[in-house]
Amino acid sequence: VWPGEPRVGEERAAIRDGASDRKTDDAMKIIVLKETEPLETRVALIPAAVKKLVDMKAEVSVEHGAGLEAGATDAEYEAAGARVSSDRAGLLAGADLLASVGCPTEETLGALREGATVIAHVRPFGEPSRLAPAIARRQKSLAMDGDIVAEVLYN
Predict the structure, then answer these.
(1) What is the C-alpha to C-alpha distance for residues 76 and 153, in angstroms, rounded to an integer?
(2) Alpha carbon distance 133, 51 (integer Å)
(3) Which of 97, 135, 146 is nearest to 119 (CA)?
């Protein structure tokens, strides 16, 4: 840390308390999409988790209907501070982080902006070919594969 610069914890506290001069354009853009796997009823973030992220100055967007199978309505996400959108391509193009339960499809990874991060069950050992678009677009993945939690970085 350079003299006079806030420590990481101090900067987080300033952002949380609204005392940071960080612009809203600098906010991390987190998206939650509707799961595409058949019979999947979970959602990556529930409204309570979205509220905590929004309170920390993250910008959270949820695809229309993403939480319905898990019992969370679009109205609950909006009340938590999320923006709800039906524009899947637009959500992917602007995201810094995609939170997903299942492994995103190749099409989804291909549409996600270069350098974005994915937190999901991406199965790097079980289905490594599904990550080809992520590798090509220099995306980072936090992968949960069975009992193994691995950080898969493509730089």
Answers:
(1) 34
(2) 31
(3) 97
pTM for this one?
0.76
Cβ(11)–Cβ(20) under 8 Å?
yes
22 token code pair: 């960080």
The token pair at 56 is 């920390």
Alpha helices in 17-97, H assignment, sequence order: 47-55, 74-79, 88-94
Q: Cα(29)–Cα(81) distance, rounded to whole angstroms?
A: 13
Using CA atoms, how far residue 152 sits from 104, 132, 135, 149, in Å, is 15, 12, 10, 10
* Encoded tokens for 124: 């790097």
DSSP-assigned letters across all residues of 117-142: EEEE---TTT-GGGGHHHHHTT-EEE
β-pair partners for 30: 60, 97
pLDDT in tens, 66-123: 999 999 999 999 999 999 999 999 999 999 999 999 889 889 988 999 889 999 887 7
What CA–CA distance (Å, rounded) separates 70 from 49?
Answer: 14
Among the listed residues 115, 111, 109, the one whose alpha carbon sits nearest the alpha carbon of residue 127: 109
Taken in order 63, 100, 118, 127, is the CA torsion positive or negative? negative
